[in-house]
Give the backbone structure.
Amino acid sequence: MTESDIGLRDRLVDVGVELLAAEGLQALTLREIARRAGVSHGAPRRYFPTHLELLSAIARRGFDDLAARVRSTPAHGSASPRARVAALARAYLQFALDNPGMYELMFRHDLLESGRLGLRETSLPLFGVLAGLIGEVRPEADARRVAGALWANLHGIAQLWRWRSLQLAVGDDDFGALLDAVLVAHLGADGGR
């Protein structure tokens, strides 16, 4: 691929990311991305033979952004494993709330066929970090299952918070207390490891 090709490929992904942020998943069509990028409607097919491949490239950008947030948390510092899980959970929830369209796309593995297009290689290491930390907090537990349960709980919080359902139900304007309750449910009371 030439430098020009790489530039156009990146621009198509950039436009897709911007469109996703502004209008949501339903707006991500090849034709609309091409129009906003200022190229013919057939041009994206040169770099992304299928709509699925373009969606995957856009989702990969989201996973990269989430990974950068994870790297900037105390999860890579000297805090206790439990504090690092809490920091990762908070970063995950904040990412979901700050980027609802991207968040929805990233976890729609039914749309993205993540195994075929390499997204698992991007997403599973993040899950592995969480599972590893949970294994340190709860060595007696199946860390991957606890991590899966915690992740599902966080995903539910993110969705219900976005829809404003949890704020009505629990009367909070910040998800912090709810996150604390979830961490106690999955990891036990703070003060352990």
Observations:
- Residues 146 and 186 are 7 Å apart (CA to CA).
- The mean pLDDT is 90.
- The chain has eleven helices and no strands.
- The longest helix spans residues 3-23.
